[in-house]
Amino acid sequence: MRGLTRTLKESRIVEILRKVNFERYGPFIALLVLFGISAIASPYFLQIRNLTNILRQVSYTGIIALGMTFVIISGGIDLSVGSMTALLGGIAIWVLNGLGGGVGAIFAAVFAAILAGAAAGGVNGLVITKWRVAPFIVTLGTMSIFRSLILFASNASVVRSTSSIYPELGMGYFIGLPIPVWIMLLLAAAFHVVLYHTRFGRYLCAVGSNERVAAYAAIKTVWVKFFSYVIVGGTVGISAVLLSSRLNSIGSTNAGSSYELDAIAAVIIGGTSLSGGSGSIVGTLIGAIILGIVNNMLNLLGVSPYLQGTVKGLVIIGAVLIQRGRRRGQF
Amino acid sequence: MEHPLIRTEGLAKEFSGVRVLNDINAEIRPGEIFGIIGENGAGKSTFIKLLNGTYTPTEGKIFFEGEEARLTVDIAKQKGITTIPQEFNLISDLNVYENIFLGQEFRKRLSLLDRPRMKQRTTELMESLRASVSPTAQIDSLSVAQKQMVEIAKASAFNSRLLIMDEPTTVLTPIEIDILFDLMRRLKAQGVTIIYISHKLKEVQRICNRVMVLRDGEFISVDSTDSLSEQDMANRMVGREMTQVFPEKTIPSEETVLSVDRLSVPGLLEDISFELHKGEILGFAGLGGAGRTELAETIIGIRKKSQGEVTVFGKRREIRSPSDAIRYRIAYLPEDRQGTGILTQFDVTTNITLSSLRKYTHGLIQRRLEEEKAREYVDAFDIKTTSLKAKLENLSGGNQQKVSLAKSLDTDPEIFIFDEPTRGIDINAKMQVFLFIHKLVNDGISCIFISSELEEIIGMCSRVLVMREGTIAGELEGGAIGDESIMQLATGVTQGAAK
Predict the structure, then answer these.
(1) How many CB atoms lie within 10 A of CB B443?
(2) Does residue B107 fall inside a structural domain?
(3) pTM score of the predicted model
(4) What is the ipTM metric for this complex?
(5) Can you give the CATH number for the domain in which B47 is found?
(6) B495 in reach of chain A (CB within 8 A)
(7) Are B106 and B59 in contact (CB under 8 A)?
(8) Which of A53, B146, B343, B465 is a plausible cystine mate for B142, CB 3.0–4.6 Å?
(9) Does A222 touch chain B if contact means CB atoms closer than 8 Å?
């Protein structure tokens, strides 16, 4: 009899758990849990300075991850974003230096980086849609090309800015938050609206869900896919400006290295499926912050930086396993 | 007494609290062909998925040869229960014998593949099935009927005891159906038991020994097919008197709305010319592969034409993409529902507005407008769904088809091309589709009606074009439209000579 009441109680809990929409709130719950554990594990974690630092650190790859969400929803992938960051950072600083480093020059540099990013993304998109080469292959190729171009152009050195006000952009604060964090949040809001409330967003999901059906439904699938790569290129441009302004330079050999992994990881942890068709910008934002907190905690707890990659890898694999479990659980 | 091969006791299945199958007590005897009929959503698919281990029962038991069996996919396979799904499960990049032995390859020493033996065995299988399919042919290159043969060969390669066939004839031509039935009789003679699910009552009558009727998840009856007429079956399926009637034909006007002149696509279509009149239902008959779908796809700009002109409402138009087609008010209902018609992962609303999203976008997408419109269609077409937010994969075939129809209609077409609009849907839904088309032509919309069901073509169309091997073999009008005249044009031989 007691056994029966217990199983009844258990099934009640299972029932309640089942009612929570894990598909939707899973990443958010994971973030809360991680936040709670971190707050207990380290007294420094909850300090405002530490928290804003985490946000700033994730903003560079976080911004790229927002664009990456679109690409992945459409059924593609972009591996070239890391190398592209270095190349676009270089372009930004060259434009800045060439125009004297004043306020006008900064505007021109930002504009140039975003435009060049859109163009670089356009190249990816063109090859993928026009000649139908797999996105993985194309962006693996351009990953190598972009890195090689910045290495060649800078003679494998650090590209330094001569501007004294450029760092304001990446270092500055606005109402308590670093400027890059504001940009990430604003972009996230804008992208969220695009994904859920515009035709382009709907078409992205349709193309990723079943490209043939989308084509028969009179959706211009080629353009939808092309633009997703242009957009991710644009976000890389923004990120490259923020990164280069924070350091007032960009290292051609290592700037942006493994950014593609962090960006893709944030998207996946945020619940967007790698097979495309649906996804969430808020999820990606949460995914990026989860990665940031994990890194931060490992630092605070004095774990060797060489081991941090292992933990990050486990988090990524774990996130995918949990999601797959959720989807199976429905049947 | 001999045990039945399968016996179910109080079998029931629920999905998230909704009972889709209730208290089924059925017996399937060894060596019989057991038909299951019912409308979409009656529980046929759920029943067979319980038998082949895809689902586990919520309540009730399944006995296999008298012993209770807890069936999983693997256990069902061991017991020789195989299913030939509606959508085939073949890997198109591999060839025939590789597919047949997929996962159960013959091996030589060092675990290397024994290709000669697999090819040999495949040849034997194909011979015993009297199917002309080469063991080394690529799946891609096969016709639908041939693919089905491969599925059957795959099932019989591993000593199938119970073969479950879900709507096997929907994609077959009459001649291919004859071949399939021959094959089923031979399998039966070898002692294989077959469960046969179909919407085509005539075929059930012809091939099955007994037939079980399901309605709304409930068991209605099981009878010998000898004692049951087609009419009885139809009545039991829908639970009331049903007659298969087509709406009265309307008289089209003389005005030409669409004219196609010498349209060609290399290797697929040659010199296709025809005219469509306002308010007409123009039938396109022919065998599978005659080029009817390809013609429709070329008209709406999915395929590139190599020559020819398309004139819409008196103006020559270059239609390069489906969005051009929509601009010139041409809608297409695709033949392959899952492959080209609907997004199974999208919900009802977003599927319906997929092609007409522009109408609901004022700056941003106005969800409220979308949902209002979707609700109108759900009511008008009697689409059975738990909510507008239900994913299409959770709807039955007939309801999916209605969503697909709504999607095409929402582009406000003047010309509507239907490609096999009743494929795989039940009588009730079929009738609704016919009435729907009839209403469209009454509203002055002109329709092209592609169908492999001669009965439908004859019942619906005032004029029929018959296609054969990418050309128009002939045109029939009024009283000249009949089974025999169509088949004669479709095959290029007279009915007598074909047999």
Answers:
(1) 9
(2) no
(3) 0.78
(4) 0.85
(5) 3.40.50.300
(6) no
(7) no
(8) B146
(9) no
